[in-house]
Hints:
The complex is a heterodimer of chains A (about 325) and B (about 500). In chain A, about 30% of the residues lie in helices and about 25% in strands. Chain A is built from ten helices and 14 strands. Chain A has helices spanning about 10-15, 20-30, 35-40, 40-50, 70-75, 115-130, 235-250, 275-280, 285-295, 305-315; strands spanning about 60-65, 80-85, 95-100, 100, 105, 115, 140-145, 160-170, 170-180, 195-200, 205-210, 215, 250-260, 265-270. In chain A, the strands form three sheets. In chain A, strands 12-11-10-9-8-13-14 form a seven-stranded antiparallel sheet. In chain A, helix 7 (about 235-250) crosses helix 10. Chain B has about 500 residues and is α+β, with helices and mostly antiparallel strands. Chain B is about 50% helix and about 20% strand. Chain B has helices spanning about 1-30, 140-155, 160-170, 175-185, 185-195, 280-290, 300-310, 315-330, 335-350, 350-375, 380-400, 415-435, 435-455, 460-465, 470-485, 490-495, 495-500; strands at about 40-55, 60-65, 70-80, 85-90, 95-100, 105-120, 200-210, 215, 220-225, 230-235, 240, 245-250, 260, 265-280. In chain B, helix 9 (about 335-350) crosses helix 13 (about 435-455). The interface of A and B includes residues 134, 215 and 283 of A.
Amino acid sequence: MFSNFANPFKLRDFGIMGMNKRNYSYIGKYNDRSLYPNVDDKLRTKELAIESGIDVPHLIGTVKFQHEVKSVFSQLEGHKGFCIKPAKGSGGKGILVILDVNENGFMKPSGDYLSNEDVIRHISNILAGLFSLGGKNDVAVIEALIKFDPIFDGLSYQGVPDIRLIVFKGFPVMAMLRCATEASDGKANLHQGAVGIGVNIGTGEALRAVQFDLPITIHPDTGVDLTKVSITSWDRLLHLAAGCYEMCGLGYLGADIVLDEDRGPLVLELNARPGLAIQIANGIGLTPRLKQIEALSNKKSYSIEERVAYAKEHFA
Amino acid sequence: MEKLNQKLPFIILIISLIAVGIGSIYYRSAETGIPVFPGEKVDVWKVDSKIEFNANGKEVSVKLALPDNSAYQILEEHTASPGYGVHIVRDGNVNEVNWSKREAHGPQTLYFQTSLRELDGYKEELDTLGLAENTVVWQEPYQSAAKSIVDKAHQRSSNTEFFARELYKLVDSQEEEVALLVSKYQPLQVMAYLLRMAAVPVKEVQGILLENNVKNQKVSKFLKIFLNKEWFILNPELGLVDADTPLLVWQDDTPSLLDIEGGSRSSIRFSVSKTTQSALKQSVAEMEDTQLFNFSLYKLPLAEQNVFRGILLLPLGALVVVFLRVMVGLKCSGTFMPILIATSFLQTTLVTGLIGFLAIVAAGLVIRSYLSNLNLLLVSRISAVVILVIGIIVAYTIISYQLGISEGLSIAFFPMIIMAWTIERMSILWEEEGGKEVFVQGGGSLIVAIIAYLLMSNEIVRHWAFNFLGIHLIVMAAILLMGQYSGYRLLELRRFNPLVKDK
């Protein structure tokens, strides 16, 4: 019966971080509550990112009040593909993706068309808080579509593969690529059955892949070899992730980054409470790396370049 | 070292919470006699003294010496004496009841009733002052006979206790020397004299034995003998018995038990009965009598007391929630929802409560899935679900009443708002994460609720939570301590097991 349970001392020796330790020793200590809105409100994140020169998907416009809803069409003029999101949404709810606009109306990825009224109703629902945490009034954010980098073809069943990095005090410490599967219903959450691929911080190459906490080598739906995955423009991606620290101020941070074919890595979302599954995807514990960074001198401030160089050297 | 300094105030806080908690529990149990276990019983002796005499037609005053109560706690005293002025005098030396009346004719009956409780662990010490030497030396041939009996007993025994037993056996026998002594003196008198000759501490006392349902008992004489650091009791009927025998004695120097002026042909009889009372009820009754400030919920009106009986279980429920979430890592929907469900289980009992809960949630989820098609805003959606839950509860109650299932009626104890939120959360969870997650979190909540229920329905726990408020400080300390626990949760050991399994 106990063979399913690990010896806690062995876990500690491997440096695996538990939920209590994450909450108490990292989130509680390094993430100031007052900074949470910087990441929980996607509009604010976007504005901060633009201010600090962090690459994000282009902001087409926002709708803040019900009486502005009709103005959305003038904002959308000239944009063929875009997506409309609730600023405080959670779990991907309320995101409307439009691939094309033509005489039939607004085309969804499924090929269905929406009328102007459908779009207005969706935005009204967002404003009324239908998708936000606790049902609070919300803001609709309209941003440009991401053109997915073809290197990810076949890695994801529906959905978008994104790269999750844990950034601690500005140092990228661990990374994984998350790919949706049929089992995860197109979502990128590991506990729902998405594939997690641990990524070598030094090179951007895959370390190993897991689904449902167990190692796999090929994608269960597409059959693509997961061990051969290598992420291009890895250096830029690391710089981008490291820069999120200055941008939002959170010491313990999860950065979700996507690769755009034209623009390269873009920060999609930041997370003040990143999960622990990244350890399983990498097959290694977070604690030793976090400790190593905590042990660095506080007096010296490190530039983004120095932090990336340090991470590439030590966490490869 | 620096770490220790940072943690020091916290450690001090925890230690003082625990210390104050334990201290207050100890105080409650020691000072007010609140029992540690709820079912504890105490024996209460009820002693009725009935005094009868014939009044001479003039002023009457009656004086009844009260027994030595150092081994007992007096719970109640009553007198019944029509037309008499009564006062009870109790100061170190004089313990007595006085009755008086200006004029009384004919037969008079006075009652005095005492309720006594034996004090635990009371031990009478040897007080050498009160011990008399043999005041007079008996004349011959009695003195030589006495000496010969003492010698005989001495030879046949190895220690003082056996000596006393041997001596008693001899005095009880038909031996020649004994017959001689008993012809002149009372057997107890002989016994006392012989013991004093052998320098064994002995006291002659009068008293009554406390036995259940004994009526019309007279005061009889006893010897108290100090053997093996304990007072033994000797009486011709009982033999030599140890000090645990309940005996109510009057002080040795009491001149007379009953003293009547203005009356004649007096008699006094005692009736003894034993009742067993709940120790809790007993000590609460005592507390109510004391005028001292005491921080007790029993001072509140009964209705408020019952409210607090429920409220004071919540900290223990919170402890269960903290433990299962922080140490075990169970997922549940809504932090404290399981405790509120557990408190309604207390009203409905577990099985009925579980069936009712599942029935309400299942019905709620089905109807809620229709509501979600309507695209309502949160507040109106929740309100609709609240009304829905009330409707379901009313329906269940009526149906189970019609079917004659009386357990079904208690379903109304479920907190409607909490149920509504539970349904709302689970239905959102279903939409966002799928049915499996609903079962994981719903099951987790139910496990937490059941464990909290089992703890909160435990008699000892309920007793402690209400009677020993100090326990809540200890619960608080435990919760604070767990709030700083940064180790692994039990279920994480399983989650992360694949990471270390083959290494």
